[in-house]
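Write out the 3D structure for:
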Amino acid sequence: MPKMTQLHHFVEAARSGSFTSAAIVFGVTPAAISRNVALLEKQTGSRLLERNTRRMRLTAEGRAYFERLAPALQSIADADRMLGDQREQIAGTVCIETQPYFGKHVLLPVLGEFAARYPQIEVELRFSEQGSGPPGDNSDLAVRRLPPSDRSQVSRRLCELPLHVVASPDYLRRAGIPRTPEALGLHDGIVARLPDGRIGPWRFLKIARGGRADSRSVEVEPRRRFLLSDQLDGVMNAALLGLGVTLMSVSPIMQQLRSGSLKLLLPGYRPVGVEHYSSVYLQYSQPRYRPRRVRLLIDFLFEYFQGTDFTRFDPSYYAD
């Protein structure tokens, strides 16, 4: 009879396609994963994985075994978790790390809803300008703008915040209102460096009827740039002060759009490219055990953000 460890190691290696990735999950060496898979093959009398120096894949027998085994192991894990959850009191502190701009303008209202649902759980929100990488010391979760390079970290896309061109009324009175992307070349621009240090030109697609975008893009650079190093709060403040036009996510500045302190421009165009379409990722490590309070917050955040489509926005309503 195969040991449970061998079964778990085989399933994770098959799922990830790598002994190294499976070893990270279980905190052992790749050699230990390979050895347990070999013992499992010997006990079952079947070749389960084809492996060479370049890649690893399931055999036909291995795939059939995996498809029956993986759900069975998950059922056992779910049963164990259910018993543990019944014993574990839902209390304690969850620490989540995020950039100030996203944390103050998007995440805080969401965490208020979480606190109302689970009043016995305390949430500590830590602000950091770090745009990528794992959570810091003593943090359970991190919200980042770039996925991690560390494969030991879980990274799941939380939401996407498309950007739009905005400026203050004072600036527009002085400099005029740009009606096309090409006109932005005659304006001052407020630009934030991305977390990886890049600064790219602004590119736009014209939106046709029905919401479809033209296949041809227009690339422009502002006449003069005010550069801010990955400080999105600073970008908003610079726009409010009338220093120029900029690209911002609409969701955090809805209050400014409603009050008229910022005006939305170029409603018939969509910014495109990595620089202009901000994906937000939730990142955390892969421990063998994660407290229930942390799992509850992870599930709550995905429940909220997956049910909120930030791309469904009519820019013409707030356009000047």
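The chain has a mean pLDDT of 81.
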